[in-house]
Amino acid sequence: MPTTKAPETVRAVRMPRDQRRAQLLEAANDVFTTRGYHAAAMDDIAEAAGVSKPVLYQHFGSKLDLYLALLDQSCERLVEVVKEALASHHRNHERVDATMAAFYEFVSSASGEFRFVFESDLTGDGSVQKRLWRVNEEVADLVAQVIAEDTALPAAESKLLAISLVGIAQVSARYWVSGDASSIPLKEATSLVSSLAWRGIRGFPRTEHEA
Prior knowledge:
This protein has nine helices and no strands. It is mostly helical.
């Protein structure tokens, strides 16, 4: 009599730890941006990643740990795009344009990572507040360095101007992506706000200002 063969157990392919972590972060990003921190559950994230919850907990000890990892990743990305924008041109007018464009492209990215930095529903948590403050400081320091070098203004004054420019970029970009201004095309919105910022900052020339 022929014997019936037991069905084989299908096992998930093992991934290197870094690759698995990246996969889990990508799944968590989708869940958090869609549902928000409080409505998301580790079960939802594990299901979205196609892993068991124990596997998820092997990499992240809690939902907050996972969220903070995503927040760190998003903050690093924002700092990097601003740094690249400032280094992409030598003329300050073009630097302002590029930096504003960096903020607008960041908020319009399909990944939705800007929500972790600008629209977190966990701002009451001290560890989140610390990270959000730090990313604002890092971005403003990058801008302040350029202002100080080109205007010879003291560090404190350069930083205040930098914080103001970053505020214009952040608030306007957030409004554009989620408000009535979203009907304005990306390039047009960037050009409009860049003109506003440039007309203000060009009033602080060192010896001679750019046109």
